[in-house]
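ok so for the tutorial part 2 we go from a plain amino acid sequence to predicted structure tokens. step 1 is just haveing the sequence, like this:
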Amino acid sequence: MLQTQRIFLRALEPSDLEFLYQFENDTSLWSVSLSVAPFSKDVLRQYLENAAADIYAARQLRLMICLQQESTVVGTVDLFDFDPMHRRAGVGIALAAPHRGQGYGAETLQILEEYAAQVLQLHQLYCSVSQENSTSLKLFRQAGFQEIGVRKEWLRTAQGWQNVVEFQKILSDLFD
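step 2 — the prediction. this is what the tokens look like for a chain of 176 residues:
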């Protein structure tokens, strides 16, 4: 279920430490992850040890995006703010720079939507995207996420304030 012909999603493993260390400390991704400081290997090791917690307990789930042919990790996808009562979760995708623009994000969203609807029985997914992030805006629009509003001057950056576009997608109509 968690795969296409080109990619598959899998749980975190201890061997992901080095990838996560490089990925989480890539300052070009901090604006989308809202990070403001680097992560140590020790902190990430502890995160990996606890990442196996059930989504119902942790209220979040991170999966690694991997290429089918060589099992190379190319990014991560997160479900966060998981709310089982209202059957919704936020979604975030981040791909390593060499793997962007190749359709992996769209395939990841497709897999994640099916998993969220059929396994987790979520009603909807949502996300927040900086108005400056044209690639992510295009990704979520093409995936059928509906723009539901704009938060004005929501993110402070070195270049000034940025608006954030809020999206949601109702899943129950797609997979019932």
